[in-house]
Specification:
- With 178 residues, the protein is α/β, with parallel strands linked by helices.
- The chain has 5 helices and 6 strands.
- Strands 2-3-1-4-5-6 form a 6-stranded mixed sheet, with helices on one face.
- Helix 4 runs antiparallel to helix 5.
- The chain is globular and about 40 Å long.
- The termini are far apart.
- 43% of the residues are buried.
Length: 178
């Protein structure tokens, strides 16, 4: 099972990204199962939230929160700290939205805020980080993420969010080619 932990703030779309990832994975074939769910306290804009996505080739019975993730994705770098590494499996990676340089082979950073403003005209980084995930993971394709966006987002949001996913994946791929 691949387990992804999402960190964000209320209104940033962490749970939406968790659901889109699950939907994209389930589109692979009839043997691909996903579970996505949120965890948050008082529902208010800006409050820290966590969301979870579990991906597997068999039905998922474990509905508990993820304690050790394969990927931990931060939509907001103010939620990232050295303790973030404790929530990773031994080979786990962190995808971090930040303008800062992070010196760790376990951290893949992208300035998702800049891309979000440029493409979406809003500081909402969820689909940017979803595109970054697609570029580093073998679990889900960009094509299936695009299909999930078409199936789960309103028509007026689809085009910009697909552009955002593609742009983020391209940024990460260019960085990996260096």
């Amino acid at each position: 099972m691949t387990e992804i932990l999402w960190h964000g703030r209320g209104g940033q779309g962490a749970f939406t990204a968790a659901r889109l990832l699950g939907a994209a994975f389930a589109l692979k074939d009839n043997e691909s199962y996903a579970l996505a769910f949120p965890s948050f306290g008082p529902e208010r804009r800006g409050a820290p939230i966590r969301a979870f996505t579990k991906l597997d080739e068999k039905p998922i019975g474990d509905r508990s929160e993820i304690e050790k993730a394969d990927f931990s994705i931060f939509l907001d770098d103010t939620l990232f700290s050295e303790k973030s590494f404790e929530e990773l499996k031994p080979n786990g990676k962190i995808l971090l939205n930040t303008k800062q340089s992070v010196l760790s082979e376990r951290v893949i950073s992208i300035d998702a805020d800049e891309l979000a403003i440029e493409i979406l005209k809003l500081p909402i980084t969820n689909t940017i980080m979803l595109g970054a995930f697609a570029a580093v993971s073998t679990d889900v394709s960009l094509e299936n993420i695009e299909k999930a966006i078409y199936q789960n987002m309103s028509e007026k949001l689809q085009r910009k969010n697909i552009l955002a996913v593609r742009a983020a994946a391209e940024v990460i791929r260019r960085e990996n080619d260096r």
